[in-house]
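Late entry, evening session. Most of the bench is empty. Finally got around to the prediction I had been postponing all week. Sequence below, unchanged from the version circulated by S.P.
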Amino acid sequence: MNPRRQGTAAALAAAFIVSGACGLVYESVWAHYLKLFLGHAAYAQTVVLVVFIGGMAAGAALCGRLAERIVHPLRAYAMVEFAIGLGGVAFHGVFVRVVDWAYATLLPAACGPEGSCVASWVLAAALVLPQSVLLGTTFPLMVSGVTRAKGTDAGRQVSLLYFLNSIGAVAGVLAATFVIIPAVGLPGTLLTAGIANVAIAIVVWEAGGRIPRSTAATRGPGSATDPFGAPSAIRLLLAVSALTGLSSFLYEIFWIRMLSLVLGASTHAFELMLASFILGLALGGWWIRSRIDAIADAWRFLGRVQLLMGLAAAATLPLYNVSFDAMAAVLRSLARSDAGYVLYNAFSAGIAMAVMLPATFLAGMTLPLITLLLLRTRLGERSIGFVYAANTVGAIAGVLLAVHVLMPLIGLRAGMLAAAGVDILLGIVLFLHGSTRRAWSRVDRAAIVASLAGVVAVAATTTFDPLRLASGVFRDGRARLSDEYKLLFHQDGKTATVDVLQVGDSMVLIRTNGKTDAAAIVPARAGKTTADEETMTLAGALSLAYRPDAADVAVIGFGSGMSTATLLESPRVQRVETIEIEPAMIEGAKAFRPLVDAAFTDPRSRLIVDDAKAHFARAGRKYDVILSEPSNPWVSGVSSLFTAEFYARVRGQLRDDGLLVQWVQVYEFNTRLLSSILQPLGDVFSDYVAYRTRADDLIIVAVAKGRLGEPSARIFADRGLAARLEALGIGSLADIETRRVSGRYPLERYLVDLPVPPNSDYFPIVDLEAPRARFIGASAGEVFALVDGPMPLVEMLDRRPLRFDAPVREFRGGNVRQERAAAARKWASYLTAAEAGDGKPSSGEDPLAESVAVVRTLFVDCASGESVQRLWDRVVLVAGELNPLLPRNEAGVLWERLAASPCAARWPADKQAWMALFAAVGARDATRMSALAEPLLDEAGLSLVQRNYLFNAAMTGYLVDRRHADARATWARMEKSLPAILLQQPWMRLQWTWAQAPF
């Protein structure tokens, strides 16, 4: 080959690799966009795939019909790439405008409140169908152009181009997920792909100009007497193309669903699985490229490939069982770090390839073989488009069959065997057709027998252990749950695999793709509840506490049904719509009855299977409360329920005084991601407050307009709701108050310095980063420590005093801060009791007990001045623990009585000043706090405990009085005298950030 032609070939090869990459980028990003509009429900996901694949089929079929009329296929290819590029550049702006119009006008008018909506499907098709049709023409046009230019080795050229396009697709999947989208978001990714398409168009236009114009290659002879060129043979090959497309898509969907139980259901895991699938296709095309033209009997070879593909697919079932052990071994050997996460993804890809590669390698040979066979018939060059179109039509059928028929009816294992049976049947049919010309060889007979026997053997010997499937091995490295778990329910649903298990004799938990979404004690037992029960019950109770007259409520996510059942305890609630995307979740939650009976039997309860955003867009209702309690944000698709666009949509569905009550995961998360969620929440909602649950989650209560107001005690007048709260140790608003973390402004101020953009549908930072946070075991729990400092800092910055309408209940095993608050009140009573034994609480394991005993001795037994000086740290520690946990009236009484004791009256002036400071902190008197703390900070001989307390008192006083310059000066003066570990405590960092840029 001369250098000029060699350069042209290299340019075309590079262009086709990049084209394949862009095509998968478009498929991935358009699917994301359309799911934002249509939702993530099973039917919506099906529509997205059908529109995209159907468009490609139409484009390929169009090329098949016009192939012989196109004089210069490469120039036509360049024009198509240019048009695709323009579409990619313009897509985001068009999508946003069209969808805004649809939400505001089309959907409320044209769609019913529940179920599917044809108008939305038509609009979705209009958005991506033109580009999908264009994408479908690229492979046939490039193949036509190259095969005409070469003139020989058509099979090699088809196989090579199939490989190049597929390997580009692998690169596109990985680059988009791990590089481009994190860097520039979805709009930037489309822009990047669009520019690349335009560059491809220029390169191919120039390269194509060096190749003289030509007509289509001469058609093959095919006649009625030639069994391989007869119309029946052509129809059979096109049918094989369609059916192998069907089986391949069945494999892809089933494998992804199966492996999501091993690798996790995150976006990273899905894209690694997709890349592994396409890589197998690419390698199959590469392997056969140098052999295809030398194959003496392509019919028979294709039949053998189909048989082996079916056998290889069936063999993945026992291999899949082993993959749980492989993942467990991987997790045991990896550090939970950023570097470990890179290796985790590499091993995940390795597991996916081990499962998929044998069958997909064989699948990668089928299209080149079928295309070569048809190129030799009367179809000639038209066969390129027809084969591609038939294959994609089969893929559409595979989507519909897998999601809506096979998975719900027979499950993943039987579905895989059925798909393998399709390929084996195709192989037998090809042999039968070939036998009209050549007798079957021993190898052929052996291949058929071995394939059938292999599938039967796998079906007979391989089962899926439900305790493996439900293990969630990707989280904690357990390949199988122990035998103490009893399976109550298992279903491979349309969007997820759902398991319900019983642990011991009472705990029931429901799992989605191996991840627990809810756990409860069933039936209820006195004094025994789970952390999840508190989260679910408290979410419903807070909704009603802040909106006691709520009539219309929507709940996003069914889970166990407990949040819905809690809301229905209020007689004032008229309607609760619970929107759940997976029907199997609702069915499985029946195992939580009778705890959640109301969710299923109360006539006010409506269970809706749909995507929440899609339902809201069509329903056109206004709600008093929307309670959002979806799965964890690292699960693919779930992060879209924590975005700026979602909050704006929800705000539009609420009445002016309506509430959004949002569950936010704190474990397997980090403060950066929490900030990216709270930023858009604060932009859309005027005020919010955050509560901590026993499960160390946050429940955010946000109001659409105005200030949030205070919770109402009316919830305790509703007998059923009061009983649910009583089981959690919550008997009054005081118990709820102990769970309060912060109002809006302290929380935002604490998180404001984190360099993170707001989570958005188009810049999905949570979707991209949360899987890593899950793997390394990160936590955003440091926000809980904002209220753990020695000052009532958050309370004072919130300018909202601690409100206890009743004594805090002592409840062991419940909320930690509730236990501390109850203990603080008892210690305060003990310190002011007349006699040493009066009201002395049981110290148990309370670390404060010894210090409280010392303090009482100082105030009652009148220790010497030397003892007071030596033991003063104990007094400071007790003050730092009790003052933030006592309302100011109780704290004030405590320090007034202690200061009035005969012992305290004898102490030196500096200790009198300390006592005044303790009283000022208890009274939340910011001015006196800073005025008293500053002089004491200048005294010599301060211990670290004392210096730290005084520093916090001065800083808090200055910040609350808005004396930010004084606060900064105090920080600058004292920071070198305090260890870095103290300055990094959350309450200290809040003081620093508030002093720099106050609200």
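Two things to note before I forget:
The domain at 225-463 is CATH 1.20.1250.20 (Growth Hormone; Chain: A;).
DSSP finds 36 helices and twelve strands in the chain.
Will write this up properly tomorrow.
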